[in-house]
Amino acid sequence: MSLLSDLVNLNLSDSTEKIIAEYIWIGGSGMDIRSKARTLSGPVSDPAKLPKWNYDGSSTGQAPGEDSEVILYPQAIFRDPFRRGNNILVICDTYTPAGVPIPTNKRCAAAKIFSHPDVVAEIPWYGLEQEYTLLQKDVKWPLGWPLGGYPGPQGPYYCGIGVDKAFGRDIVDAHYKACLYAGINISGINGEVMPGQWEFQVGPSVGISSGDELWAARYILERITEVAGVVLSFDPKPIQGDWNGAGAHTNYSTKSMRNEGGYEIIKKAIEKLGLRHKEHIAAYGEGNERRLTGRHETADINTFKWGVANRGASIRVGRDTEKEGKGYFEDRRPASNMDPYIVTSMIAETTILWKP
């Protein structure tokens, strides 16, 4: 008699050419990830060869009940670490039946920016640092924290090891390996300053692919926490008080910044970002004012400043970049719940296309 786990882990290639494609999209809140699966006749590696699909947008807060159909356009394919074999995860964006992007489709506008010849020529690289918090399911309190109470003060938890300092490492490592299997360019993980909080990094990735990869990594992480019976939070300040918030620091460089003399290009780009500080802050995630207080390794939300190796700045430049006269910089303002399509394309638009 087969066990449920035996059936879940069946290798379809033993008996059929057919595969399962999990179509993934972003729901009405801008942070709720939705997905559903369909059978395809055989393996597919090019998203352009995948069929479009549809769903009930009235059930995701994206369409009225009397005209509820929303169309899914496949945009990126990753290997499926849950079903494995030739099965795939498909990152999609969302359109009306007439082919108009719906308001919550932020990928379409980003793709237009990244396809601009001036942006293409600069080959923008991104490294996205995604912080998140693991919560106990029934009480929505951080993993490893005593119920109704608090752990010892911050200090021993950042990159810490041990049963009293690292909570949820099995989830973190499972996610790391699953992303590598999927073909996501995940570059590392670490425990964060607040206990129960972790970070993974995606990149360097070029242009629109950075957003596709981060959304795929978020999807995989939430699927793993579902299996583990743990709640995943991207709240930028999950616990009030003397505890670090959660951000999505965005590392960025262009071809000109990576070449000789790039440090001057970096400084000009930072100057532009300062001139559009309010516009960027408005687009960098909900609830970010609770995190950007000027404490806990942040700059105040109303202040723009940059510095070398300064983790209390809006923009941090690394010592290596200063020394070598070229490289990249880190925008420390985005919140953990930011939309990577918005943030990455906005940085490119401001630093490459925008004329003050």
Automatic annotation (TrEMBL):
Reactions this protein catalyses: L-glutamate + NH4(+) + ATP = L-glutamine + ADP + phosphate + H(+)
A single GO cellular-component term on record: cytoplasm
GO biological process terms on file: glutamine biosynthetic process
UniProt cross-references to SMART domains, sorted A to Z: Gln-synt_C (SM01230)
This protein's UniProt keywords: ATP-binding, Cytoplasm, Ligase, Nucleotide-binding
InterPro entries recorded: Gln_synt_N (IPR008147), Gln_synt_N_sf (IPR036651), Gln_synth/guanido_kin_cat_dom (IPR014746), Gln_synth_cat_dom (IPR008146), Gln_synth_gly_rich_site (IPR027303), Gln_synth_N_conserv_site (IPR027302), Glutamine_Synthetase (IPR050292)
Domain GS catalytic: residue ranges: 106-356
Subunit structure: Homooctamer.
PANTHER family found in the cross-reference section: GLUTAMINE SYNTHETASE
The protein, known as: Glutamine synthetase
Source organism of this protein record: Salix brachista
Taxonomic lineage of the native organism: Eukaryota, Viridiplantae, Streptophyta, Embryophyta, Tracheophyta
